[in-house]
Automatic annotation (TrEMBL):
One of its GO terms (cellular component) is cytosol. Pathway: Cofactor biosynthesis; tetrahydrofolate biosynthesis; 7,8-dihydrofolate from 2-amino-4-hydroxy-6-hydroxymethyl-7,8-dihydropteridine diphosphate and 4-aminobenzoate: step 1/2. Residues 19-271 form the Pterin-binding domain. It catalyses: (7,8-dihydropterin-6-yl)methyl diphosphate + 4-aminobenzoate = 7,8-dihydropteroate + diphosphate. Its cofactor is Mg(2+). Catalyzes the condensation of para-aminobenzoate (pABA) with 6-hydroxymethyl-7,8-dihydropterin diphosphate (DHPt-PP) to form 7,8-dihydropteroate (H2Pte), the immediate precursor of folate derivatives. GO terms for biological process: folic acid biosynthetic process; tetrahydrofolate biosynthetic process. Belongs to the DHPS family. It is an enzyme of class 2 (transferase). This is Dihydropteroate synthase. GO terms for molecular function: dihydropteroate synthase activity; metal ion binding. It comes from Cupriavidus metallidurans (strain ATCC 43123 / DSM 2839 / NBRC 102507 / CH34). Pfam families: Pterin_bind. The keyword Magnesium applies.
Length: 289
């Protein structure tokens, strides 16, 4: 039951346009790739300005690291990190996404001007569905095996594609039962969240199988260890080209949103991919927006 648009809070995006580029804005001291670089309010706002200048479509603000082995962050600390950024960027002209699984943070961020909740727990925490049921805010439902502390300890599946698809289908049913409009929902297979590199590549290769009812898919492979394994163990900051290639591969397989660190390079690559696909050069590389 796919829709013609994706409702993202104050913003509505056509499903007939090039993939959306979600830029990562981590306000954490311990993110795997850019930890500490944007941890202060001023640094975070400067980076947001850079993302906007580079053509970002959605800004994803995260106050708690979800890298493998990371510890949970107390509620008050997460609120202290993200709320000043949300309030400062509420009128920046771009949708704001909040990367959180805590219902209290969801409520506060949405009240403060956020447009989308990006939940690594797939809205499984008690109170999470209730926190997002009302309104027109966008939702991203992600699959994760176990939790960030243990997810990379020998992840195992009988059929990773079927199991991830089944999980996403169940979560979509739960959200619909709560009265949430399908147009608000996007899906994330959770690359690197309880998966080996081979699991990740199988999911990417069979991405269309994960589009439950034709809902939009978000892919987050930017700078992740799977790409490092493919290109010979290069560190995260040296995985830019690989990350752009992964974004284009995801777009080719139907991804609607790509979550990335390197916005300008990804936007340019997707504009070229889209122009070739459309056999036409359109303003900003987009059609039907």
């Amino acid at each position: 039951m796919s829709t013609e648009f994706f409702q993202c809070g104050r913003y509505r995006f056509s499903r007939r346009r090039r993939p959306l580029v979600m830029g990562i804005l981590n306000v954490t001291p311990d993110s795997f790739s850019d930890g500490g670089q944007h941890a202060t309010r001023d640094a975070a706002l400067r980076h947001a300005e850079q993302l906007i200048a580079e053509g970002v479509d959605i800004i994803d603000i995260g106050g708690e690291s979800s890298r493998p082995g990371s510890a949970a962050l107390p509620l008050d600390q997460e609120l202290d990190r993200v709320m000043p950024i949300v309030e400062s960027l509420a009128d920046c002209g771009k949708p704001l996404s909040i990367d959180t699984y805590k219902p209290e943070v969801m409520r506060a961020a949405l009240a403060g001007g956020a447009d989308l909740i990006n939940d690594i727990w797939g809205f499984r925490m008690p109170g999470a569905v209730e926190a997002v049921a009302a309104g027109q805010f966008g939702l991203c439902v992600m699959h994760m095996q176990r939790d960030p502390q243990t997810m990379q300890e020998d992840p195992h599946y009988t059929d990773v594609v079927a199991e991830v698809a089944s999980f996403l289908e169940e979560r979509v049913s739960t959200l619909r039962a709560a009265g949430i409009d399908t147009a608000r929902i996007s899906l994330d297979p959770g690359f690197g969240f309880g998966k080996t590199p081979d699991h990740n590549l199988r999911l990417l290769g069979q991405l269309p199988s994960l589009a439950v009812d034709g809902l939009p898919i978000l892919v987050g492979l930017s700078r992740k260890s799977t790409l490092g394994a493919i290109i010979g163990g290069k560190p995260p900051q040296a995985r830019v080209a690989a990350s752009v290639a992964a974004a284009v591969c995801a777009a080719e397989r139907g991804a609607y949103i790509v979550r990335v660190h390197d916005v300008e390079q990804t936007v340019d690559a997707l504009k070229v991919w889209w122009a070739v696909r459309q056999e036409s050069v359109a303003p900003d590389g987009q059609h039907g927006e």
